[in-house]
Amino acid sequence: MTSPSDPIEGLNGNGQAGRYYGRGIPYLPIDGYPGKLIAIEGTDGVGRSTQIQLLREWLEVKGYGVIETGWTRSPLMQPTIEIAKSSNTLNKLTFVLLYATDFADRLEKEIIPALKAGFVVLSDRYIFTALARAGVRGVDRQWLRNVYGFAIAPHLVFYLNIDVKTLIGRVLESRGMDFWESGMDLKLGDDIYDSFRAYQLKLLREYQSMADSSNQRRNPASPR
What we know:
Strand order of the largest sheet: 2-3-1-4-5
Radius of gyration: 18 Å
Order of helices and strands: EHEHHEHHEHHE
CATH architecture of the domain at 36-161: 3-Layer(aba) Sandwich
CATH topology of the domain at 36-161: Rossmann fold
Structural class: alpha/beta
Largest sheet: 5 strands, parallel
């Protein structure tokens, strides 16, 4: 498929890559799968979709088979999550479990089969988004790690970094601020703008802390 010198062939992450973080899925052993899992992380508005498209094009030119997956794209859970979020009344436990179910469905039906078949899987956000959002909401971190113990450690994680001032400008120019993206459930400000700024500052700190502790590759957000 590619030469041994190709950089994708040499991806081994931090030694845990391609293995379950925790107990995993008992009926799905995964050791030795030839595919690679690459996650692109960062808050909304940093340009993940742009970077994924560029990376996909590069990989396909190199001769790799590529599939994409992303947060809340499970056909089973996407409608349920959209309905639950529309009420603006989700509690933090339900919030975590809905997203964990979405991820579990995609992991079993999309990610693991693709890795087994030798594909490169590009994930638009990964469990780090779930950990960051739940961490900001005060969910116990050990409980979160146990919940997501079935996740596979990626071979490579790109974290797209952005400052909150630039982020606010991008969001206002595009789709505007919504309830959950602004952390309105946390009552962090007098209005949606103040809440968005306070929430995103907390969220960015969570992302940056995980990027430091898990050897993620930091990259600036895509230019606009």
